[in-house]
Structure formats: structure tokens, C-alpha cells
Amino acid sequence: MASAVAAPAAPPAAAITPERYREVAARVRLLSWLSLAAMSVEGVVAMIAGIMAGSIALVGFGLDSAIEGFASVIIIWRFTGSRMLSSDAEHRAQKLVAIQFFLLAPYVAVESVRALAGGEHPQVSALGMALAVFSLITMPLLGVAKQRLAEQLGSAATKGEGRQNVLCAYLAGALLLGLAGNALAGAWWLDPLVGLAIAAVAIKEGVDAWRGDGCCVGSPLDGFTVTDAACDDDCCSR
């Protein structure tokens, strides 16, 4: 009787040493510091420009910047000291990053509906348009870099923060469209519509971050097996 053919052995799992993990985590922490600095400037300028022009989209963009700045603080906290190799810290950071999205949506949605119903016409804001262009250039660079490093760390929290930066770039594009439409064609209604878009996207991204979308990059300290506390069964079955 012929012997059964043995199944080929599975290739060894990729691994990352704790030393390499700390090195990559330090890069993430640096990027988060840079994001925090950029978001602080962006938030202050957007709020000032929004109040001056009566633009709910600009005010919402400023609030988004403040919330994303807090997400950067969370990642800095996550990768500092003994928390750097803690799966519990990763899990808490993931949830906290997700909450940032939910903080933004209600205010912007209510104010946008109020502006549409009242027919409030925002003024032209050259400062706001310049800010949107700045965000379109800087945020994708930070966001993509963080998401690539998140894959190496197996960090859903880092991936969520990177997605917030990319989302900021998309919102900056929508903001620029609304502000330019108002300036060139008097399309004042574009401003609150952009505000509603910001609220809708924030809710979607918040849900994805809370569920740990992207967490199945795995836990590199366990050989890229999906055992990290930040990755639940529902996420890893997708």
C-alpha cells in the first residue's frame, strides 16, 4: 500500500526582533510628533479663517485637525516607555483613536444642516484655500508613511492614525472645492455640503477603526501570527 504523501511544510513565519520593533516604533513616534505640530498649526488657522469667513466647513476642518492631533498624542503615548511592547496599550490606543472620529461628526453635521436651512452665505476665504492646499500636500505623505510602518508593527492604532491623515487630505480637497466654488461662482451651499461630507466620512472611519479594520497585519512579536489583543475574531475573519 502506497504511503500517503506528506503535505509540504508551511514556510516559516516572518518575524521581527524586539530591537527592530523599537526602531520602527521610534519612527512612528517621530511621525506622530510631526503630525501633531502640523495639526496644531492647521487647526488654529482653520478655526480663525472659519470664524472670520463664517464657514462651517472651515470650522469643521479645524475641529478635525484638533481631533487628529489628539490621535497623534495617543500614538506617542502608545509607543513610549513600557507600553511600546504592550498589546493591552495597543488595544486601548486603537479604541481611543476610533473615538476621535465620533467626536467630530455630530457637531459638524448639526451646524451644516443649520447653515443649509438658514441659507447662511460664508465669505470668500483665501486663507482657507491656502490651508487646504497645504494639507493636500503634507497629509498624504504622513498618512502613507504611518500605514506602511503600521504593517511592520502590526498596529491597528497606528494604521488608524495614518488613515486619519489620509482622510484629512481628502477632506482638504473637498474643502478646497467648496471654498473655490463659493469664491468663483457664489455656490455658498457647497460649504455646508462639504461639512456634511466631513461628518459622514468621519463616522465611517470611526466604525472601521473601532472594529480594528486593518488589524490583521498581525502581531510581529509573535511571528506575524494573528494573536494581538487589538485584533478580534470578527476582524480577522474578514
What can you see in these coordinates?
- It is a single chain.
- By secondary structure, the chain is mainly alpha-helical.
- It is built from seven helices and no strands.
- It has helices at 18-53, 56-78, 87-118, 126-153, 156-185, 190-211, 233-236.
- It is elongated.
- Mean pLDDT is 76; it is low at 1-14 and 223-238.
Topology at a glance:
Blueprint: H1 18-53, H2 56-78, H3 87-118, H4 126-153, H5 156-185, H6 190-211, H7 233-236
Helix pairs in contact: 1-2, 1-4, 2-3, 2-5, 2-6, 3-5, 3-6, 4-5, 5-6
Task: Describe this protein with a few key phrases.
238 residues; mainly alpha; disordered N terminus
Q: What's a quick, concise take on this entry?
A:
The chain is mainly alpha-helical and 238 residues long.
Please give the count of helices: 7
Alpha-carbon distance between the termini?
42 Å
- Structural class based on helices, strands and sheet pairing: mainly alpha
Low-confidence spans: 1-14, 223-238
